[in-house]
Amino acid sequence: MFGWLSVHKNIGGEFVTLKNLDALFNPENIAVVGASNNPGKAGYVILQNLINMGYPGKIFPVNNKDEKILGLTTYRKLSEIPEKVELVVLITPSQLIFEIMDDLEVRMQERNDVRAVVCAAANYGETKTEEGIKRQNILMETTSKYGIRVVGPNCIGVIDNINRVDTTFVETLLPKESRGRKGSISFISQSGAVAASILMWGASQPVPISFNKFVSIGNMADVDFIDLLEYLEQDQDTRVIGMYLEGYPEGYRLMEVLSRITKKKPVVVLKVGRSEKGASAANSHTGSLAGSDKVYDSAFKQFGIIRVNTMEELMDTLQAFDKLPLPADEALFILSQAGGPGIFCTDAVSRHSFVKMPIISDGTKEELKKMLPPMANICNPEGYADITAAANPYHHKESLRLLLEDPTVSGVILITVVPTFLSQEELAQSLINLYKGEGYIHRKPVFMVIMAGSYVRGCRERLEKEGIYTFETPDRAANAAANLIKYTLFLKKIRSRGELND
Amino acid sequence: MFGWLSVHKNIGGEFVTLKNLDALFNPENIAVVGASNNPGKAGYVILQNLINMGYPGKIFPVNNKDEKILGLTTYRKLSEIPEKVELVVLITPSQLIFEIMDDLEVRMQERNDVRAVVCAAANYGETKTEEGIKRQNILMETTSKYGIRVVGPNCIGVIDNINRVDTTFVETLLPKESRGRKGSISFISQSGAVAASILMWGASQPVPISFNKFVSIGNMADVDFIDLLEYLEQDQDTRVIGMYLEGYPEGYRLMEVLSRITKKKPVVVLKVGRSEKGASAANSHTGSLAGSDKVYDSAFKQFGIIRVNTMEELMDTLQAFDKLPLPADEALFILSQAGGPGIFCTDAVSRHSFVKMPIISDGTKEELKKMLPPMANICNPEGYADITAAANPYHHKESLRLLLEDPTVSGVILITVVPTFLSQEELAQSLINLYKGEGYIHRKPVFMVIMAGSYVRGCRERLEKEGIYTFETPDRAANAAANLIKYTLFLKKIRSRGELND
User: Fold this and answer.
1) Rounded to an integer, what distance in angstroms lies between the CA atom of residue B305 and that of residue B291?
2) What is the domain extent for residue B362?
3) Are A69 and A117 in the same domain?
4) Do B453 and A197 touch (CB under 8 A)?
5) Cβ of B352: how many Cβ atoms within 10 Å?
6) Which of B171, B191, B274 comes nearest A339 by C-beta?
């Protein structure tokens, strides 16, 4: 029943190299087979995305009825395209796969140029029907003969922001200025819907997230988690890896690769199937006999893989790893401009037993007292200060400076509910001046919470445009901070064992 | 040290009646003492809010330098206002309280019209200084002599949307059409910053939240949780009560009142101080010797008070109680258009052990199978269906209908990641036609998750404008659904004990 899952590992082994994956992310010219003139069709959106993204190579739509689509000359067949094509995107009805593969054979015999296929079409192995498996097999047989790497079938596509490739059929929501912007987060999703949600959510952040590489892996007929992880391991532009994982047939190998990567860069995983019912649903979906969640969970812990529980935590943690330096240690100070949210944050931080709230020096306490409004609560409890609603931008900035200068502090959560009578612009600017302008952003992480809603969007945008990530609520900041600390403690542990060369 | 907290209970007991609280929410004319012509001052924003809200009575700014503020005739003293004034808002520097109280005495001797004061100004009892306590005492001595009820000091104000009163100094962010709209949620906050955050967040929802009554209680020098809870208990327009709670000096009395109210309407509480550090910070902030969180927690459980953990859960749960019918039982079906988010939701639901995923009838399963796309996963596991990305609006709607018609189902979580090729408008409309048009919204709750980001905002707005609340992520829907079920189970329990008359 699940035979199709392991097919790819037995075919064309010799031709399959990491290097061939380049054609997914930086191909010389792209053909879209199944391109459409109908804006309601995926075959239209893919073309539009490639154009909107500003893909610098040539795009060749392939279908058998249109002369032009979106102004691009359309070809009847892949084999008729007169120029080099390194990447082929398939978005045709699945029953056409046999003739398309025949045509691909013709092309490869004549030109031998195609190096990768993104099969966004569905109705293949995932159907678990004889027909579906047959279709997936012909796809794999043909492509593997020529060492062509395949992503999918049954995926939403692949994005590379730096190389301006977007083969997804999710409407491009990134504003123009965010496309092609260098991102450091790369993401692999085992669910197309989760992938689409993440892209749509990422695009609506105060400063939209430009992922570096983004792959919806679909059925993993060929390219799978391990291929991509090994690729991202070597990719200099990828500083953080995110994954949405339902299950992987070779869990042991997956952990082997992950355990090697986490020594170099953080990996953040949203793994579903924690519950028995969830695992059963995952098994029906991916069909990968996922294995016990407990085994995954303990491996994650052992190998320093950061497991998150919600989409919010996933996005916040990825962004925090991307934008902030790692804390040197587990000492997190909570600096709040408001009692309620500060207390709330203290509760949230306390849920992570490995996070400590530091006892800062008497000197720092004295200086805070001298500088802050008289009502300020300084270090009651230890590791916590409430600078009160009377705090102006100067108080925010200078109290933050004092804490960042205190050697007992490895990171700060800064919470503010911008009152009506305090200029958001002024507050943002003074925090930028200190944190970025004076270079603290390279030394210690500050998790800035600007509450709440669209009223403070301007303030958050201002900060994020300067590369300072902002959080929506204190608990979200607390969770992200705890994840960074968890990774720090993991690195310390393996360093102390001599397993880390730095 | 905390003596000021109990002052109010000993003064003017005879005059203090629930009825006087009306003047906070529906006063005949309002004076704003400390009104300002400077848009950066709270004394300006309060006036602006009253005007923007469309307060139908007269507004009298009081200060000693301006002739007019925002076009309104300004008076030197409260006692000089020639018309009836039922509500006085104080936003003056705190040291002026003595002369203002002298002037209030004059007014009361002459006119005896003021019935309530909102003291938004700070620097009173909360400072725990001799001066602060003295100021609070003079305020309380004067007002209680005349049975005038006082909210604050040190609060952000009071809102009544239906009566168009907004005495807060948080910029009014509600769009015009949301002001004066009948809301059923009333909220009491022990933190001004949390109150402000909730207002700002509520205003930025797909359809902004029009609270019914909203009170930031500040120091609780007079009006406190119990007064307001008893008032809201009797308020026909309040169907759900929300609270942000740090601590209350008379915990036993609070629980007595709450245990009576939860038999009539749900109460949702965000109580901080769960952790030792958090409790210590709460104690510094509110100074109310909050008492053990464990005691609160077990009382909440016993009396059916719904405790939430995050701002998101607070807002979602309040909205769900407001907009959806209570489920008759604990059987929650997960209907997803996408595998990944559906599995994720199953995990989230499974965290609540009292929620059950129902085994629907074979008949319903058969009908689902007949109607849905061939790849659909029906009830594997039980209580779960994945209608797949091939599902069109008809599939969404009719599968939902079948489940709502199945007697084993008490509620449904419906998740959809609107694909590019499916019209959001069409999907929203068909769900509205079924759920609202055919009246299911009065019978069973459907928790609709429309993922994700601003791309689907139009779809969510369309649904919410018809009174159908939408959730941002599956886990948020799962938490809100679990909270409704928790309340249902509480009502069933007390009904079975004969403690509920219905």
Assistant:
1) 18
2) 324-493
3) yes
4) yes
5) 17
6) B191
Q: Are strands A185-189 and A213-216 parallel, antiparallel or unpaired?
A: parallel
Residues of chain B neighbouring A194 (CB-CB closer than 8 A):
338, 340-341, 344
- Using alpha carbons, select from A424, A404, A422, A423 the residue that is nearest to residue A412: A404
Distance from CA of B81 to the nearest CA of A (A): 28
Calculate mean pLDDT across residues A297-322: 96
Which residues of chain B neighbour A380 with C-beta distances below 8 Å? 280-281, 284
Nearest to A417 among B196, B310, B374 (CB): B196
Peptide bond into A452 cis (omega under 30): yes
A417: nearest CB among B126, B197, B452 = B197
Integer Rg of chain B from CA: 25
Note whether B217 and B243 are within 8 A (CB). no
Q: pLDDT (tens digit, 9 = 90+) per residue, A244-296?
A: 999 998 889 999 999 999 999 999 999 999 999 999 888 888 765 556 889 99
User: Same domain for A313 and A339?
Assistant: no
Best residue of B130, B197, B269 to probe chain A, by most A CBs closer than 10 Å: B197
Pair A232, A358 in one domain: no
Query: Domain tally for chain A?
Result: 2
Alpha helices by DSSP H, listed for A375-473, are 393-405, 424-432, 457-465
List, in order, residues 6 or more apart from B255 with CB less than 8 Å away. B299, B303
Q: pTM of the predicted model, to two decimals?
A: 0.94
Residue B353 falls inside a structural domain? yes
**Could you tell me if A261 and A201 lie in one domain?**
yes
Quote the CA–CA distance of A314 and A474 in Å, as a whole number. 15
Estimate to the nearest angstrom the gap between the alpha carbon of A380 and the chain centroid: 38
Q: How many CB atoms lie within 10 A of CB B430?
A: 20
pLDDT of residue B502: 55
Would you tell me how many other CB atoms lie within 10 Å of the CB of residue A52? 17
Q: Do A389 and B193 touch (CB under 8 A)?
A: yes
Q: Do residues B449 and B311 share a domain?
A: no
pLDDT digits (tens, 9 = 90+) for A375-400: 899 999 999 999 998 899 999 999 99
Q: What does pLDDT average to over chain B? A: 92
pLDDT at B35 over 50: yes
**What local confidence, expressed as pLDDT, does residue A18 receive?**
57
Q: Are residues B285 and B339 in the same domain?
A: no
Computed on alpha carbons and rounded to an integer, the radius of gyration of chain A in Å comes to: 25
Name which of B41, B276, B421 is nearest A42 (Cβ-Cβ): B421
Q: What is the dihedral of CA B427, B428, B429, B433, to 10 degrees?
A: 100
Q: What is the mean pLDDT of residues A214-223?
A: 96
